[in-house]
Amino acid sequence: MGKKKLPQPNTSSTADIAFLLLIFFLLTTTMDTDTGITRRLPPPVDEDVEQKVEERNTLVVLVSYDNRIMCEGREIELWELKDIAKEFIENPNNSAKLPKKVPVTIDFFGEVEVTKPHVISLQNDRATKYWRYMDVQNELIAAYNELRDELSLRTFGKTYAELDEPHQKAVAAYYPQKISEAEPKTY
Amino acid sequence: MSKFKKSKNDGVPELNMSSLSDIVFMFLFFFMSVTTMKEVDLKVVVDVPHATELTKLEKKSLVTYIYIGQPNQHNRARMGSETRIQLNDRFAEVDEIQDYIAQEKGSMKEEDQPFMTVSLKIDKETQMGIVNDVKQALRKAYALKINYSSKRRDNSELTR
Q1: pTM score
Q2: Residue A41 included in any domain
Q3: How confident is the model at residue B20 (pLDDT cuts 50, 70, 90)?
Q4: What is the span of the domain harbouring residue A115?
Q5: In angstroms, what is the C-alpha Rg of chain A?
Q6: Shortest Cα–Cα distance, A161 to chain B (Å)
Q7: Separation in Å, CA of A143 to nearest CA in chain B
Q8: Nearest Cα residue to A57 out of A10, A13, A115
Q9: A166 belongs to a structural domain
Q10: How many domains does chain A have?
């Protein structure tokens, strides 16, 4: 008894089917990846517990109901904010008015003095517009990112984004991001 | 004696088409993997603000969305023009957010839950009052990783 040979299926239409699916996915694809400013909220705490922070260690940034920015008791423009924040975070001349520097041991750096206890307090009114708030957030994060980039370039010869993870962690520990978003107040 | 025999058939050879489908399948899988189907019908108008210091949101499965803005044309007659919150396919109030987050968290794998990110798609003309209420609700729900959705902007645009 001879074996019956199975007929070879005709595969010429697989390409057509695949094309059809391909066109469907081409049309439904939205390439844009979601981007945004990532932040971490503080965990919930009891309302009446208020952390005491020394005055020299805080930078208060106020955004008023009519979208004006107040910083350290005077009105400023948005473009000024980044430099103010950078100077505050870094405290380059060890000024007594800017945040206190404390010795910290960080990998790759050894023992260094950083302004660890600093806090940037971002306050806003309930009527502040969201875009203004985001402008301010953006500038503050830009200040941190620039400082980290400068430090990375100075010590490792690469930008912060190009470093590998342990180095990134070390640089991030040098300039820890501390933006506190307090509850809104009505003035 | 020659090693290279001249073939008798001098015509143009037929192209072998069998690898075509492989190539097309490759494209297909590429698009399948990058495709994100639109998750919800937007009922509010959301025009997100622009920013420079952006991070990309990876792993779509870990992301939960909250939309805040004014109701769009279709829903304006019913809902008015007051700023509203949209969760999934419906309008919601601030106090529903905690339940919503808990529900979304529950539908995730347990090992993924700590990495849950909430993407806030908020219209730029929104007042901060409602945003703050949402933030407080998220804190209470222990959804601490948030992402203020925003579009890229060139640095030069800042000096308006």
Answers
A1: 0.75
A2: no
A3: confident
A4: 55-181
A5: 27
A6: 11
A7: 10
A8: A115
A9: yes
A10: 1
